[in-house]
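Assess this today:

___
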Amino acid sequence: MLARKRGRILNVASIVGYQPGGPRMTVYYATKAYVLSFSKALAVELQGTGVSVTTLSPGVTRSAFEDRSGANGTRLYRLMPQMSARSVAAAAYRTMERGGGVVIPGFFAKILAVAGELPPRSVALAVNRWLLRRPEGEQ
């Protein structure tokens, strides 16, 4: 891409990349924070080369993820509207075609991303614990 002076990179992070962590998903949160940080730095490094970096940070999306991750039934998945995978992908593609940047599709996802960065980490951790708590009696 550098030799051609043209190209596009799309990395998939998550809104949890803006959060300090969550119960039973610590490694997932940490890896998404890494992808977000790496992608932002790479975008700066590649400025002016013709190669752009887009970082997709979706929120709650209708998919098999909630079952596979064990997040099904949590407050997060009960309270937050879920976007379709198609609309998330379309937002990522549009942003990538415009030349990069971070895309956070959906109003509530944007709020969750900002909410993870503003308060002290201890407050954000407590909120995440509450959002990802399972109903009483479930593990």
Notes: The domain at 7-131 is CATH 3.40.50.720 (Rossmann fold). The first helix runs from residue 26 to 45. Strands lie at 7-12, 51-56, 101-103. DSSP finds six helices and three strands in the chain.
